[in-house]
Backbone:
């Protein structure tokens, strides 16, 4: 069958890809030792000021001339997906792969003049037709999940105690006519809850139930829902925890690479024909159950509709060396600490390029960033750390307002205990008001959407970011009060923010980003890639990637860092 041939081809390709990473990336340095020769500088060749900034940075940081690359790009802040792939990605990928020797670059620095955003591609007529097929199959799978959930509610109950009204409490699957009216995550969550409840009832019930028809029924439903592949349990638990609807159907790239036997999942990255998709869905159902098939059709529908494909150029470009991956949604960042124990993390990380940007409202601001970075490194960053929480009730649920607000307070408590660096916390709903934050060296706070509050007197070399949905939507528009642009205009040296709605959980956690930076062991881009949650998404880092503000005067001891946060020595392979 066509599908089996495709599977074999993709499996072979996947293994070769992983092996090739090891061959191509033998020149990586250990963490914390990013050098000028490790950086490739990309500028807009159609924009003279872009080249000027690129050459200035190369001169100031002694980046080899061979590491500069000019590409003809649009001069606005947006670029089409087609232009991104045909001009930027193809040229840069070829450039990187042609750079051989001991100093293979592991960081790309985008220069003032390179667009911020990659726009959503427009679905073709064929895309829309395929999306409609995927939508129908998705609803069929969801219908099955609901029916199995109904059946689970009866298992383990005596016949005379089964509440016939419970079935009516679940919506009829006939009403589920469109994806927009269906919360797939909620139904999966219900199914898993009922599966656990049925198991508890059987365990606590009469012995005959444990071995009888109910046990057989429970095992049959479990296989129908989850298939024969135990890794599906991990997928479901992630869907259960994910805080935003856009993460429905998300496939963990690290999981895929560590479970190469799940060959069908690689085809989600490389694409399959409509006929092959139907064959593949049947195979997935056997391996991963109806929930696995539901996930397959969800992602296929989203891919064809080109949903959630708008991204920052920077975050997307981290995957420049990967030729096959879904552009819909984000992918987990493999540099995060939770992936350190993954047996293939080293290989995966070698295939990711760290990206930052030297940018601002004009070329003078962009050049100032490197000047300030170099001067601050020589003397050490001094001033006050301002933390602006909102006084919200703490929450353990990832992605909620209470969850992020508690991280700000947690950072404050940690620094008061472990560092002598001056720190002030505002735990009120209102923000720091104008003139209330003198000698601002570090900052993290929220929430004033695209409306900068001029509370800060930024010291040279200052670093900070404001958590809101559109603070890097523009760095150029004159009347914009977005935080990234405004902070750069007023003197901050490094910041980060989203070019479009990013969702809260995609911001670096402040209680990870700042402690790691304050040790003085790591430079800016390494700290960012250690703590940013996802790639192929919407955040950007603005600043000199080599910048280490605490290099001369660490504000935090390495042993004081939260467990596992320090970058392992083998985070990136040593040079040979």
Residues:
């Amino acid at each position: 069958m066509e599908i089996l041939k495709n599977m074999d081809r993709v499996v072979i390709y996947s293994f070769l890809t992983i092996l090739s990473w090891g061959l191509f990336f033998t020149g990586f340095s250990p963490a914390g030792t990013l050098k000028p020769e490790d950086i490739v500088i990309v500028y807009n060749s159609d924009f003279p000021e872009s080249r000027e900034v690129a050459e200035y940075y190369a001169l100031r940081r002694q980046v080899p001339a061979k590491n500069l690359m000019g590409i003809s790009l649009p001069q606005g802040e947006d670029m089409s997906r087609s232009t991104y792939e045909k001009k930027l990605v193809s040229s840069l990928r070829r450039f990187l792969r042609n750079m051989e020797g001991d100093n293979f670059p592991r960081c790309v620095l985008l220069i003032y003049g390179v667009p911020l955003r990659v726009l959503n591609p427009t679905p073709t007529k064929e895309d829309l037709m395929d999306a409609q097929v995927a939508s129908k199959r998705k609803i069929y799978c969801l219908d099955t999940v609901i029916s199995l959930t109904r059946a689970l509610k009866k298992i383990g109950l005596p016949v005379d105690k089964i509440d016939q009204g419970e079935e009516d409490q679940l919506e009829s699957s006939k009403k589920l006519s469109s994806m927009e009216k269906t919360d797939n995550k909620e139904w999966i969550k219900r199914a898993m809850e009922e599966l656990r409840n049925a198991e508890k009832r059987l365990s606590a019930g009469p012995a005959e139930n444990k071995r009888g028809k109910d046990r057989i029924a429970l095992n049959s439903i479990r296989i129908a829902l989850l298939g024969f592949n135990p890794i599906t349990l991990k997928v479901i638990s992630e869907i259960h925890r994910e805080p935003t609807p856009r993460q429905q159907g998300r496939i963990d790239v690290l999981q895929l690479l560590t479970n190469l036997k799940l060959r069908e999942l690689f085809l989600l990255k490389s694409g399959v024909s409509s006929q092959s998709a139907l064959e593949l869905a049947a195979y997935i159902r056997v391996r991963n159950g109806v929930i696995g098939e539901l996930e397959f059709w969800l992602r296929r529908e989203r891919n064809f509709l080109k949903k959630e494909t708008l991204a920052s150029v920077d975050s997307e470009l981290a995957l420049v060396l990967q030729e096959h991956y879904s552009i819909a949604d984000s992918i987990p960042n493999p540099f995060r600490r939770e992936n350190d124990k993954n047996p293939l993390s080293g290989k995966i990380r070698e295939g990711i390029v760290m990206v930052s940007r030297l940018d601002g409202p004009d070329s003078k601001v962009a050049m100032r960033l490197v000047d300030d970075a170099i001067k601050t490194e020589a003397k050490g960053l001094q001033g006050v750390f301002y933390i602006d929480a909102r006084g919200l009730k703490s929450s353990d649920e990832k992605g909620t307002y209470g969850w992020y607000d508690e991280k700000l307070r947690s950072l404050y408590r940690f620094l008061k205990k472990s560092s002598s660096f001056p720190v002030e916390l505002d735990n009120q709903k209102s923000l720091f008001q104008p003139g209330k934050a003198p000698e601002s060296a570090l900052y993290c706070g929220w929430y004033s959407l695209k409306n900068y509050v001029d509370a800060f007197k930024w010291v040279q070399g200052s670093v900070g970011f404001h958590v809101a949905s559109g603070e890097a939507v523009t760095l150029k528009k004159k009347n914009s009060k977005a935080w990234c642009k405004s902070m750069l205009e007023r003197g901050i040296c490094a910041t980060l923010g989203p070019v479009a709605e990013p969702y809260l959980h995609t911001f670096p956690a402040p209680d990870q980003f700042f402690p790691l930076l304050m040790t003085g062991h790591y430079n800016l881009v390494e700290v960012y890639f250690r703590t940013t949650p996802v790639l192929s998404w919407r955040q950007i880092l603005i600043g000199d990637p080599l910048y280490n503000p605490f290099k001369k005067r660490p504000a935090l001891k390495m042993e004081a860092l939260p467990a596992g946060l320090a970058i392992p020595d083998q985070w990136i392979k040593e040079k040979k």
